[in-house]
Amino acid sequence: MAKIFLVTAARPNFMKVAPLFHSLKEESWADPRIIHTGQHYDLDMSDSFFKDLLLPQPQINLGIGSGTHAEQTGNVMIAFERVVSREQPDLVVVVGDVNSTMACTIAAVKSDCKVAHLEAGLRSFDRNMPEEINRIVTDTLSDVLWTPSPDADQNLLNEGIKPEKIKRVGNIMIDSLELLREKIEEENMLEEFRLDAGNYAVVTLHRPINVDTRNTLKNICDVLEYTASKCKVIFPVHPRTEKSLKAFGLYSRLDMNDHLIMVTPLSYVKFMSLVFNSKFLITDSGGIQEETTYLGIPCLTLRESTERPITVSMGTNHLCNIENIYLNIDEVFQGHSHKGSIPELWDGHTAERVVKDIHKRFEY
Ligand code: UD1
């Protein structure tokens, strides 16, 4: 049996690994194992996702936790190298673009182990984003590159990557969404937070560029208050953002606003249930740009660039800055946002295509 390591680390990884784990589990030739680096460790940033996504406890947890970029990356590399050398996996699958994705890739390829990257080829072309560095390093070193969209294929080809390494498989996050659609639709979050379907906004923010400096975060608080003057706003607050809001004396100002509901980070099913019924989102997340495109819900992304341009060209995503976001919010309320369409292969069957590709490529 092929021993396949599926690396998880931070919140956005879990919904990318889960469908692949479940699909591989059904194959007689595959022995999938979840390795958690422990980059995210809080109950609501990690455990609740395992539960919702029906994942077993990780086989191995490296327990790395937080740190500077070099500390986190270095600690994951050291710990993961030991595991690879002891366990000798046949294949390491890494997902997304967090520090652990890059760290495990480096450690595995240097241990002579095959690496496949799921969600390869995304580029924001902004090297100030730590994730962009992680994407470039991971894609350069990986043996197999599974991409979600044609722009990702092109980015890899432009960087000189051999075409035979690249396989477009679609968007794995849509598999998780479809896998749990029933549960998401059954969840009743509206009553709990006294929200009316289609008449509230969901906010998520965690990028260092938005939340680490007082002035920017204060300007964003103004945007949230403006939004709350038009409809209710629900804001699950990431630990990084909570720290900044408190340190900059901005937390209580938002918390006092009756139309602005601040909550701790939510589990996958609860969060998606809020998204399903929302009027629009304000976010700086990567994955939410894709989920809203799939669901046809307007998404205002507070970022200068996106590594997911197809969500803007085909979907419902709008890149905004702190000045023009007001206009974009007004447009949502005037009903001017366009519906968009769903990119090819974002169909809930990506995991099956990945499994087929592993089987064919490595002849397990
Ligand atoms: C990381 C990823 C980012 C991803 C995001 C999703 C990198 C460089 N960044 O950013 O790409 O979009 O995850 O959330 O890998 N903390 C807790 N509990 C936790 C995890 C974090 O309190 O379970 C706090 C710690 O104070 C930590 C801070 O959040 O220092 C930041 O965590 P970290 O994993 O370094 O980066 P994220 O901002 O979460």
How is this structure best summarized?
The protein is α/β, with parallel strands linked by helices and 364 residues long.
What features would you describe in this structure?
By secondary structure, this protein is of the alpha/beta class. The chain has 2 domains: 2-171 and 346-362, Glycogen Phosphorylase B (Rossmann fold, 3-Layer(aba) Sandwich); 183-333, 3-Layer(aba) Sandwich (Rossmann fold). It is 47% helix and 16% strand. The chain has 18 helices and 13 strands. It has helices at residues 11-25, 43-52, 69-87, 99-110, 130-141, 150-158, 172-179, 181-186, 189-192, 208-211, 214-228, 239-247, 251-255, 268-276, 287-295, 310-313, 325-333, 350-362, and strands at residues 2-8, 30-36, 60-61, 91-95, 114-118, 144-147, 166-168, 200-204, 232-236, 260-263, 280-283, 299-301, 317-319. The strands form 2 sheets. It has a 7-stranded parallel sheet with strand order 3-2-1-4-5-6-7, sandwiched between helices. A 6-stranded parallel sheet has the order 10-9-8-11-12-13, with helices on both faces. Helix 4 (99-110) links the parallel strand 4 and strand 5. The chain is globular and about 60 Å long. The mean pLDDT is 97. Uridine-diphosphate-N-acetylglucosamine binds at residues 10-12, 39-42, 45, 66, 97-99, 130-131, 206, 238-240.
